[in-house]
Amino acid sequence: MMEEMKLTPNVLEATSRDGLSQNLEVLQKELTLCEKALAQYLETKRLAFPRFYFVSSADLLDILSNGNQPKTVARYMHASYSDLNFTFLLI
Questions:
Q1: pTM (2 decimals)?
Q2: At what angle do helices 20-48 and 57-65 cross, to 10 degrees?
Q3: For 58-69, what is the mean pLDDT?
């Protein structure tokens, strides 16, 4: 469907296709489910380590996905531990 839309230069014609609205509604519902599941997952991590409440969801996701790379994670530590110096991790 996206390939067909890409080939149609007229916006009104491309967006008035049959079934497009229903497809977008389904995608929106699926996206909402994914967002809720991700929020629940991040909440479990915050419950396990409360200092994660001081970190945004996007940053927490980056921390969790780069947990084995101290240099990458170190840049977020100022939010959780503002009174400590983490320059030793950057060496």
A1: 0.69
A2: 70
A3: 91
